[in-house]
Design goal:
GO terms for molecular function: efflux transmembrane transporter activity; porin activity. It is found in: Cell outer membrane. This protein is of the alpha+beta class and 459 residues long. The chain has one domain: Up-down Bundle (Outer membrane efflux proteins (OEP)). It has 10 helices and 6 strands; from the N terminus they run αααββββααααβαβαα. The chain has helices spanning 2-13, 28-38, 40-61, 125-191, 197-232, 244-247, 264-285, 316-319, 337-406, 412-447; strands spanning 66-77, 83-85, 93-95, 106-121, 290-302, 321-332. The strands form 2 sheets. Strands 1-4-5-6 form a 4-stranded antiparallel beta sheet.
Length: 459
């Protein structure tokens, strides 16, 4: 019997031990900060932003002139049939010599060239591409903000669930300690013949049940702390959660419905619409032609001499070479793509209409969520007041009846019933506080700004 009392008392005091060494306290702000610093999905979104910025740089580089250089020296047969032909679509060439080659032979050939092409006039097509790139960067940036908001929303719910579990654990530990002290007193009185022995058995049963409940509550809290640790990347001991903040709340509405316009979901959908509109403008610009500057220089040599004879030496083309240059302006216009452009624009318009419909639907859902959160908060506020009054009344009643039991005016069964009523009132109060915080979280989620929760915490 004495071992049970000593163990139970030590177990209950374990959760109220003063830690003299410096310890960390995981506040809500600290949990948010660590989540944003290390969670992998946020890193993925940041890499996507950098990817879009690099794509924009690539588009800018397309404004620069394109220069192609090639050089070759070959050795092969020089037999040829004069004539003209199209070697590739859009290219026409003439080949041949006005002097016949009398014998079948082979010789060396040389060719080198450098060609510059600069499409300096594209009728706004390149600028429209840059607009699309900027829209993609803004969309990726808002997608990162949305991901951050989702992570903070999830970790906030787990954080308050852990606070609730620790608060419940502290209540159960206090109940265990109270029963252990009462058990020690009753056991001493029973040994002295002042109490019936059955009272010790009855109280022992209640004490063991309380210990079992404490173990159960510990398991729940451990699970929630593991979930919380997965977000912040650190293990969190029981003692590093401060439950005092759990009870420091202000009974006030946070934020206003006007803040809904800045909700991360709506911001992403708005940027999606702008991105689709930018793509539509870029598609429109595709129907215009491109005007470019063409310039080139070339060096051509051959082992075929002017009299038709062939010099088979490797260096012969260098001694029989000529250089040329070419400068011009070219226009490129794909007429067949004009009809396709019309279809592409129709597709882009459907994409824009779909994105706008999604945004309007989300607006309706967020407004309904906020209205529901306000209604739930008002009901929960009244429930919390009732639970608090019940808890205070049960606590006062138990203290009075505990004195009466020690004076022999009531039985142990009556006292244990009051103990059970006090436990229920304590649990109901903790649950009511948790429900109140949940309603505040619902409000901040509907408004898209979880930092509003900080305004509900009393200093």
């Amino acid at each position: 019997m004495k071992k049970i009392v000593v163990w139970a008392t030590a177990f209950g005091l374990l959760h109220h031990t003063v830690v003299f060494a410096q310890k960390r306290t995981y506040t809500l702000q600290k949990v948010w900060q660590k989540t944003l610093q290390q969670y992998p999905s946020l890193t993925s979104k940041k890499q996507l932003i950098e990817e879009q910025e690099l794509k924009k740089e690539l588009i800018k580089q397309q404004f620069l002139p394109e220069i192609n250089i090639q050089a070759q020296q070959s050795y092969g047969s020089v037999q040829n049939v004069p004539g003209s032909f199209f070697p590739l679509p859009g290219i026409y060439t003439i080949s041949g010599s006005n002097k016949p080659i009398l014998e079948k032979t082979a010789g060396s050939n040389l060719y080198a060239s450098a060609v510059l092409q600069w499409n300096f006039m594209q009728f706004g097509r390149e600028q429209k591409k840059l607009d699309v790139a900027d829209a993609a960067i803004r969309l990726s940036t808002n997608a990162l903000k949305q991901e951050e908001w989702q992570m903070l929303s999830a970790v906030t719910r787990i954080y308050f669930a852990a606070l609730s579990s620790k608060a419940a654990l502290e209540i159960v530990a206090a109940d265990t300690k109270r029963l252990a002290e009462l058990f020690s007193l009753i056991q001493s009185q029973a040994s002295a013949g002042l109490r019936p022995g059955a009272d010790t058995l009855l109280l022992k049963s209640a004490l063991l049940q309380s210990i079992a409940k404490e173990h159960e509550q510990q398991a729940i809290l451990k699970t929630q702390l593991i979930q919380l640790s997965s977000f912040i990347g650190e293990n969190i001991p029981f003692s590093d959660l401060d439950t005092s903040v759990y009870y420091r709340f202000q009974q006030t509405v946070i934020g206003t419905g006007e803040a809904l316009q800045n909700h991360p979901y709506l911001q992403v959908l708005n940027e999606r619409i702008r991105f689709a509109e930018a793509e539509k403008e870029a598609i429109k610009a595709e129907r215009y032609p491109s005007v470019g500057l063409l310039a080139g220089v070339g060096l051509k040599g051959s082992g075929i001499q002017t009299d038709g004879s062939v010099n088979k030496g490797i260096a012969a083309p260098w001694n029989n070479a000529s250089g040329n240059y070419l400068v011009g302006v070219g226009l490129t216009w794909g007429f067949s793509s004009l009809y396709q452009n019309k279809t592409k624009r129709a597709i882009a318009e459907r994409v824009i209409a779909s994105a706008k419909a999604d945004r309007d639907a989300v607006k309706i859902q967020l407004n309904a969520q906020y209205a529901s959160a306000l209604a739930g908060w008002d009901e929960q506020r009244q429930k919390l007041a009732a639970a608090n009054a019940s808890f205070n009344a049960s606590k006062e009643a138990y203290e009075l009846y505990e004195v009466r039991y020690q004076s022999g005016l009531i039985s142990l069964i009556e006292l244990l019933q009051l103990q059970k009523n006090l436990q229920d009132a304590e649990s109901n109060y903790v649950a009511a506080v948790y429900g109140y915080w949940n309603e505040l979280i619902q409000q901040s989620e509907a408004l898209g700004n979880l930092s509003l929760l900080l305004t509900a915490i009393q200093p």
